[in-house]
Specification:
The protein has one helix and five strands; from the N terminus they run βββββα. It has a five-stranded antiparallel beta sheet with strand order 1-2-5-4-3.
Length: 100
Amino acid sequence: MTKLSPQVGSLEILDTSKTSLTIGAEVNVTNPTEYAATVPFIDINILVNDTILGHATARNVSVVPGANHNLPIVAVWDPSTQSGKQGIHTGSELLSQYIS
């Protein structure tokens, strides 16, 4: 079976707080099935090694078989609230792999 293979098309910072970052994004995914659907609400956790660092939400998304482009999502990065000290440590380790 083909994978979803998500790719981020664009990013926009929507809000920040002392512990969080809210990002709007458009993502591209491949629906490997022959089915289409409209999903009224989906919320998924953002995980690294079983530690929750945030979550991403999509509302009223229509998905067709094959390529789906520019699906809007909102992601909240908030390791502290989601997983406390372990979240802060894991989130910092993850970011340090990309930002130095």
